[in-house]
């Protein structure tokens, strides 16, 4: 009996082993594909097969084909060098303060590629969609961060969670790269050098006119540097020709040769008498960038913008503006400043001399200072200029009262019947049909009857909103500002993009008394640049994003 039992036992073991071998032969294919390396982020990670993939300067987004950036299913990965030193706990706390609609669960210590980090569950709601997810944070060094976050509608989380876990196992870390710099021999400010062409904005460092009212006041040199005339009128800080009724010209010289994309002429008195604008290449050859006839305009001061789309790069360092004051007979056409925008040459220094000898401000810093002093653009057009969206803009968080909502919105809202209370003093949410397909406005009020939040349906946009300024190059320019100062004021971003943007969401955070506003700027092809601003400042690494059209 013992011998027979042993034989049967051996047969059973063999059958189990054969069964296991058959199961191993049917191994489920990995959902992950090729490896991706982010030099600026300091990490490698596998791509998720079938997901849309985008890397925007150290921020990787992988989104399911039918998903959205806001609710997923998708994974966002961030990495890179920070200005201040942080611990893992500090980094997670920072993410908690930025996760306004998402609850971060209790963190547990987790190692990835030998690096200690923290892993926590996420849950919450976004515009009526229940969300689940996970977040992992780690400081590879005291100043190099890594964040990997997954979000999904609750019903899809079981599918995404194992993908997230396998994706996290694929991560490796290395030292993140930083922009290269050359230090001068006398230890002056480092000269920034571009490995690749970069979009920059600069003001003229020299100017020479066919004639000038005097050699000091109203001289050609008054048109150098940034605009410094705040109101319409005769002002000695702008260039004026010797005659108020003839033709004349002024030539502006710039420190950094660029292939031009835009020329901005700031006219502070009797504007719109410009008849021709030429650009001068490095060989001294002149090319006509724009020509036209003088015409009356209502704006004064007036900003005349000339957009250029060259088939091939043409590097210039001079702009000539021609005026004809004999047609309208309105008097001196005074020019305060002329801004040149364009792409640098690869490997080119972008340090510019400054017309103020007491200033060491860089090209980018000059642009920030100027734009920060300018008013935010109000050039709404199409649907965004009509009553409903303008009413939406005029709903003031922490100020507008519930009784005034319909009047300001110019349409009637419907009171929501939901029982969910996102904050203790939440009373009601009112829903408005905004007009564009699928777009609803949600306005939440407190028990005191004051608006504390407003948001629009995700992935809905005005059909007639498209900006030529929304490009990868413009995004990189904005990112360069952020990398330099770790902050972008809303006024700066709006002026660079030449639009107030599309206000997607605005709310007040009671924990730190910050007003949060999320704006989006759209290109005609569907690409968009978004910014999350806290008390008017974009300060979080995830606050600036470039999102290509699907």
On the 0 to 100 scale, the average pLDDT is 81
Our Rg estimate from Cα atoms comes to 29 Å
Runs in which pLDDT lies below 50 for 5 or more consecutive residues are: 1-27, 179-195, 352-373
- What number of domains? 4
Shape: globular
Proportion of β residues? 35-45%
Largest sheet: 8 strands, antiparallel
CATH class of the largest domain: Mainly Beta
| Strand count | 31
CATH superfamily of the largest domain: Galactose-binding domain-like
Helix content: 10-25%
CATH architecture of the largest domain: Sandwich
The CATH topology assignment of the largest domain is Jelly Rolls
Q: Number of helical runs?
A: 8
Ends: how far apart? 71 Å
Structural class: alpha+beta
Characterize the structure shown.
There is one protein chain. This protein has helices at residues 2-24, 88-98, 157-169, 363-373, 387-393, 405-409, 472-485, 490-496; strands at 32-38, 43-48, 52-55, 59-68, 72-81, 102-104, 108-112, 115-126, 129-141, 144-153, 172-173, 181-182, 191-192, 199-203, 206-209, 247-269, 274-281, 286-291, 302-307, 316-324, 334-343, 414-415, 426-433, 440-446, 451-456, 488-489, 502-509, 514-522, 528-534, 537-538, 544-547. It is α+β, with helices and mostly antiparallel strands and 550 residues long. The strands form six sheets. Strands 3, 4, 5, 6, 7, 8, 9 and 10 form an eight-stranded antiparallel beta sheet that branches. Strands 14, 15, 16, 17, 18, 19, 20 and 21 form an eight-stranded antiparallel beta sheet that branches. An eight-stranded antiparallel beta sheet has the order 22-23-24-25-27-28-29-31, with helices on one face. The protein is 17% helix and 39% strand. It has four domains: 32-173, Mog1/PsbP, alpha/beta/alpha sandwich (Protein Transport Mog1p, Chain A); 199-361, Galactose-binding domain-like (Jelly Rolls, Sandwich), CATH 2.60.120; 382-456; 472-547, no CATH class.
């Amino acid at each position: 009996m013992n011998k027979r039992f042993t034989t049967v036992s051996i047969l059973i073991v063999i059958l189990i082993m054969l069964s296991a071998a058959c199961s191993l032969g049917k191994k489920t294919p990995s959902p992950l594909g090729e490896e991706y390396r982010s030099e600026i982020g300091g990490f490698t990670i596998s791509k998720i097969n079938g997901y849309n993939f985008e890397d925007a300067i150290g921020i990787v987004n992988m989104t399911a084909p039918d998903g959205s950036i806001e609710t997923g299913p998708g994974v966002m990965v961030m990495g890179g060098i920070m200005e201040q030193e942080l611990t893992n706990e500090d980094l997670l706390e920072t993410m908690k303060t930025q996760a306004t609609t998402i609850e971060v669960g209790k963190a547990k210590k987790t190692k990835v590629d030998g690096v200690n980090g923290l892993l926590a569950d996420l849950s919450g709601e976004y515009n009526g969609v229940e969300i689940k997810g996970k977040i992992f944070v780690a400081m590879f060094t005291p100043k190099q961060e890594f964040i990997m976050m997954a979000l999904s509608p609750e019903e899809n989380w079981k599918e995404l969670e194992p993908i997230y876990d396998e994706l996290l196992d694929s991560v490796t870390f290395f030292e993140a790269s930083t922009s290269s710099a050359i230090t001068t021999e006398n230890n002056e400010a480092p000269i920034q050098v571009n490995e690749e062409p970069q979009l920059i904005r600069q003001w003229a460092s020299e100017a020479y006119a066919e004639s000038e009212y005097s050699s000091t006041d109203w001289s050609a040199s008054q048109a150098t540097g940034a605009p410094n005339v705040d109101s319409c009128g005769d002002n000695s800080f702008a260039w004026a020709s010797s005659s108020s009724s003839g033709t004349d010209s002024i030539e502006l010289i710039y420190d950094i040769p660029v292939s031009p994309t835009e020329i901005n002429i700031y006219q502070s008195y009797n504007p719109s008498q410009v008849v021709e604008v030429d650009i001068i290449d490095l060989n001294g050859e002149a090319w006509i960038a724009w020509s036209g006839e003088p015409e009356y305009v209502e704006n004064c001061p007036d900003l005349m913008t000339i957009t250029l789309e060259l088939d091939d790069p043409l590097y210039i360092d001079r702009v000539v503006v021609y005026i004809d004051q004999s047609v309208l007979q309105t008097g001196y056409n005074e020019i305060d400043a002329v801004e040149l925008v364009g792409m640098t040459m690869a490997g080119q220094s972008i340090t510019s001399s400054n017309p103020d000898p007491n200033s060491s401000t860089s090209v980018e810093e000059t642009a920030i200072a100027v734009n920060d002093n300018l008013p935010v653009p109000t050039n709404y057009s199409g649907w965004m200029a009509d009553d409903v969206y303008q009413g939406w803009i005029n709903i003031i968080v922490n100020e507008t009262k519930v009784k005034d909502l319909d009047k300001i919105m110019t349409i009637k809202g419907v009171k929501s019947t939901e029982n969910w209370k996102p904050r203790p003093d939440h009373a009601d949410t009112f829903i408005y049909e905004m007009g564009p397909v699928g777009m609803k406005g949600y306005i939440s009020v407190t028990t005191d009857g004051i608006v504390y939040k407003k948001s629009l349906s995700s992935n809905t946009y005005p059909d007639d909103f498209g900006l030529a300024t929304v490009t990868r190059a413009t995004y990189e320019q904005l990112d360069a500002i952020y990398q330099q100062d770790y902050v972008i004021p809303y006024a700066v971003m709006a002026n660079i993009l030449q639009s107030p943007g599309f206000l997607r969401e605005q709310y007040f955070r009671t924990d730190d008394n910050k007003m949060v506003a999320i704006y989006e700027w759209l290109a005609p092809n569907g690409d968009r640049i978004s910014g999350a601003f806290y008390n008017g400042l974009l300060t979080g690494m995830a606050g600036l994003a470039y999102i290509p059209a699907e």
